[in-house]
Amino acid sequence: MTISPRLLVLSACVALGACSTQPRTYLLPESSIAAANADQTIDKGEDLIEQGNDQIERGEDLLKQARRLEKEGEQLIKQGKQTRAGGKALIKQGEQQARSVDLLEEAEDKRRRGEALRRESGG
Fold first, then answer.
1. What is the pLDDT of residue 38?
2. Are 42 and 48 in contact (CB under 8 A)?
3. Which residues contact 36 (CB under 8 A, 6 or more apart)?
4. Is the per-residue pLDDT at 29 higher than 80?
5. CB–CB of 38/29 below 8 Å?
6. For the residues 66-88, what does the mean pLDDT come to?
7. How much is the pLDDT for 122?
8. Under a CB-based contact definition with an 8 Å cutoff, are residues 32 and 26 in contact?
9. What's the confidence (pLDDT) of residue 91?
10. Is the pTM of this model over 0.70?
11. Reduced 3-state DSSP string for the chain
């Protein structure tokens, strides 16, 4: 049976009284505990500041995006108004053309009636 070097050293230390198998507990002075707590609090605070800065950056990015989208929306509204105005102009033009066609048809009917009357009257 072989003994591990670690067990051998531990056995020698115990035999000589240089070390104990029980873990030692050290009492820290209150100032050391307070300092450790303060360090932890500072670390947490720094983390929160960093998170806050990240959120501010994200918020600024979202604000830029919202402004860009607002400008795009305004441009689309302008285009829509122009398209609507163009559509109204086309409707008016179509109505005028329809009136012209009606007038042409009416004139053609009058011409035919006039020719028919001339034929009937012997002219």
1. 85
2. no
3. 28
4. no
5. no
6. 97
7. 78
8. no
9. 95
10. no
11. CCCCHHHHHHHHHHHHCCCCCCCCCCCCCHHHHHHHHHHHHHHHHHHHHHHHHHHHHHHHHHHHHHHHHHHHHHHHHHHHHHHHHHHHHHHHHHHHHHHHHHHHHHHHHHHHHHHHHHHHHCC
Spatial separation of the C-alpha atoms in residues 63 and 117, rounded to whole Å: 80
- How is residue 50 written in tokens? 């960093």
For the chain, the residue count is: 123
Half-sphere exposure of 115 (CA within 13 A, CB side): 5
Question: Phi, psi (5° rounding) for residue 20?
Answer: -120, 155
